[in-house]
Design a protein that fits this description.
alpha/beta, five-stranded mixed beta sheet, 8 helices, 30% helix, globular
Length: 267
């Protein structure tokens, strides 16, 4: 059995299939972990959703910001972005089945040796807090009250975690940390504006979330996606797998057992 982890697919289904063929992925014995953003700017978001859903227990998925946006579009809260190619999902016969499956996916997935989320783990959280906060939001997203959560999740505040946060402010911080976070200030406040690569940032104490000196270190490695401008990241405590396939880069897959990386250039 092998465990494969892939970065943001964003509808780049042909590249995903090529990678799967390259590593000879066998869903009867192997597992495929996907670090969020299954859909959006690539040409085959519908095919991607169908394929991963049909893998059943052989796939482990976490939700990304584009996946949550798709749910918002399904509710009429937002329109499809001009650059997104998700319209075929909304005319598909299995639309409701696919969207229902999607909203039942977690924000945090855990392996014996690593954890995976789309954007990372809040620098203020230990593993126990990360688990519990993810479950809080997942329970609402998987309930009959999920539309309320999606409708009210769009804002950049609060940007600092406190155990005293309640209601939608608490849920909004959790969602932003798991699906939108890139940079933080030295005091651990999230910055939602900057998307530049770190070597182009000159904004005082702004730094990648995983470089904060006061970050709580987990006893498991963190695997994440979301940040194409990093062009991949392989740190001591975290691995970033978004290498911008949808922007003309490559789709990256990691085989956990031997730490081998596989890449597929955009087709």
């Amino acid at each position: 059995m092998a465990t494969y982890i892939v970065g943001d697919i964003q509808g780049c289904f042909d590249e995903l299939k090529q990678l799967i063929d390259t590593v000879q992925f066998d869903p009867t014995v192997d597992q495929l972990w996907i670090a969020g953003d299954l859909v959006a700017r690539g040409p085959k978001s519908l095919e991607t959703l169908r394929f991963i859903k049909n893998l059943g227990d052989s796939a482990r998925v976490v939700l990304g910001n584009h996946d949550l946006h798709l749910l918002a579009v399904s509710l009429g809260i937002h329109r499809i972005k001009d650059k997104d190619k998700t319209a075929p999902i909304f005319t598909a016969a299995d639309k409701d089945e696919l969207l229902n499956w999607l909203r039942h996916q977690p924000l945090l997935a855990e392996h014996d040796e690593f954890v995976m989320s789309h954007a990372g783990i809040s620098p203020q959280w230990d593993l126990t807090t990360a688990r519990s906060t993810a479950r809080e939001v997942e329970q609402i997203l998987q309930s009959d009250n999920w539309a309320w959560l999606i409708e009210n999740m769009y804002a950049n505040q609060p940007d600092l975690w406190s155990d005293d946060l309640q209601g939608i402010e608490r849920y909004r911080y959790i969602i932003n940390a798991y699906t939108r976070m890139r940079y933080c200030f030295a005091n651990s406040r999230l910055d939602m504006a900057c998307k530049l690569p770190p070597n182009e940032v000159n904004e005082g104490d702004l730094m990648p979330w995983f470089e904060l000196p006061n970050r709580i270190k987990l006893d498991k490695k963190i695997l994440f996606g979301h940040w194409a401008a990093l062009e991949g990241h392989n740190g001591e405590h975290e691995i970033g797998l978004d290498t911008g396939c949808v922007w003309g880069g490559v789709l990256t897959m990691l085989r956990w057992e031997d730490q081998q990386f596989f890449v597929q250039p955009a087709l």
